[in-house]
Specification:
It is a single chain. By secondary structure, the protein is an alpha/beta fold. It has two domains: about 210 residues, NAD(P)-binding Rossmann-like Domain (Rossmann fold), CATH 3.40.50.720; about 80 residues, UDP-galactose 4-epimerase, domain 1 (Alpha-Beta Complex). The protein contains ten helices and 13 strands. The strands form four sheets. A seven-stranded parallel beta sheet has the order 3-2-1-4-5-6-11, sandwiched between helices. Bound molecules: NADP nicotinamide-adenine-dinucleotide phosphate and guanosine-5'-diphosphate-alpha-D-mannose. The site of guanosine-5'-diphosphate-alpha-D-mannose (GDD) has 23 residues, from helix 3 and helix 6.
């Protein structure tokens, strides 16, 4: 390892944000280390294009097996990597799934954050290195509080996921206050991209649009169409994570576009991109409703604009178009496979997401 390069450790590197953040940090000249979970199938699709064999002297991305439920491995990874910056993105991040797996979600999202902060604290204790930590907090923490939500808005979480994120948020605040650690909460509103997991509503919709256009699918089953979200582009949002760790002091920042749309409006835009009418294809499946819903998220990111100089580059219409175009291309490739006798699975439908 070269001593001159800044070194970042990312938990959740295989997720949407992990992939964008890795690209961003590598472009800034960082040596990037990611923690990945052992899986029976490969789970590194989103970062494969960045990976080089570690024997290659030009390799700058290194992966380590680990899990936020395993405190011992977190300590070992800290000691091995000796990071300057830690980005805690790892999570069971699906809100509806958190109602099915509440204990596991709390263990990974809440207690997992505590385990990581303990590992960072102990590493700082032995090394004296002023490690800076980013905690991936969420607008879900605001729950029922009316928009616009800012750093001053109280939390009212509405799911096991959101409750666990509130716990993680306060662990981060407490470690900052108790031990003087540089820990910053980024309270990020929904952010999407062609890399978004296929059971989150935007991607579920754009995947369906591509497949319906290509004749691979006819129906799209959804839950609540009346929820409003502040949807931004993940590429813009990872820049904010990095900016937060370059600030002179640790703090908490809302990151959002300031504009909200309903799921229904998302359907209008996405189907409209290909001249389709969603009413002919969408059906409501009550199993996709949540036991308690978050009705309206719209963030006020003026503090981040003022203190970090952060701004939105990709707006809602461009984001939806980017995702539809990507998923149309994917559907065309799936169709070509199917036309040549290969079986194409509509995987988003395996579990109700
Ligand atoms: P994502 O695509 O679901 O990625 C989650 C990552 O966490 C994956 O790399 C996943 O690994 C990893 N992970 C899951 N369980 C883990 C465990 N037990 N130990 C270690 N890693 C684990 O999520 P994302 O959209 O990139 O979001 C990144 C972070 O920001 C998450 O903490 C999320 O809750 C938070 N957040 C997201 C948004 C948003 O709109 N995207 C908004 C606010 C906050 P596998 O690939 O192996 O599953
Ligand atoms: N996933 C999903 N699937 N959501 C649906 C569906 C469906 O079939 N039908 C309607 N929705 C509604 C949900 O009820 C919710 O109100 C809205 O679409 C958005 O759902 P998701 O895309 O699953 O995102 P989320 O807002 O619950 O959570 C995401 O954003 C949070 C930040 O606010 C996740 O990325 C969280 O990890 C993140 O913290």
């Amino acid at each position: 390892m070269k001593a001159t390069k800044k070194r970042a450790l990312i938990t959740g590197i295989t997720g949407q944000d992990g992939a964008f953040l890795s690209e961003f940090l590598l472009a800034k000249g960082y040596e990037v280390h990611g923690m990945i979970r052992r899986s029976s199938t490969f789970n590194t699709d989103r970062i494969d294009h960045l990976y080089r064999d570690p024997h290659d002297p030009s390799a700058q991305l290194f992966l380590h097996y680990g899990d936020l439920v395993d405190g011992g491995c977190l300590r070992r990874i800290m000691e091995r990597v000796q990071p300057d910056e830690v980005y805690n993105l790892g999570a069971q991040s699906h809100v509806r799934v958190s109602f099915e797996q509440p204990e596991y979600t709390a263990d990974v999202v809440g207690t997992g954050t505590l385990r990581l902060l303990e590992a960072v604290r102990d590493y700082i204790g032995v090394s004296g290195k002023p490690v800076r930590t980013y905690q991936a907090s969420s607008s879900e923490m605001f729950g029922t509080m009316p928009p616009p939500q800012s750093e001053r808005t109280p939390f009212y979480p509405r799911s096991p996921y959101a409750v666990s994120k509130v716990a993680a948020y306060y662990y981060a605040v407490n470690y900052r206050e108790a031990y003087g650690m540089f820990i910053t909460n980024g309270i990020l509103f929904n952010h999407e991209s062609p890399r978004r997991g296929e059971t989150f509503v935007t991607r579920k919709i754009t995947r369906a649009v591509g497949r319906i256009h290509c004749g691979l699918q006819d129906k799209l089953y959804l839950g609540n169409l009346d929820a409003y979200r502040d949807w931004g582009f993940a590429g813009d949002f990872v820049e904010a994570m990095w900016l937060m760790l370059q600030a002179p002091e640790p703090d908490d920042f809302v990151i959002a576009t300031g504009e909200s749309h309903s799921v229904r409006e998302m359907l209008d835009h996405a189907f409209g991109c290909l001249g389709l009418d969603w009413r002919a294809h969408v059906e409501i499946d009550p199993r996709l409703f949540r036991p308690s819903e978050v009705d309206h998220l719209r963030g006020d990111a003026s503090k981040a604009a003022k203190k970090l100089g952060w701004k939105v580059n990709v707006g809602f219409a461009d984001l939806v178009r980017m995702m539809v175009e990507h998923d149309l291309d994917l559907a065309r490739r799936e169709k070509s496979l199917r036309d040549n006798g290969f079986k194409v699975a509509l995987r988003g439908n395996h579990a109700q997401g």
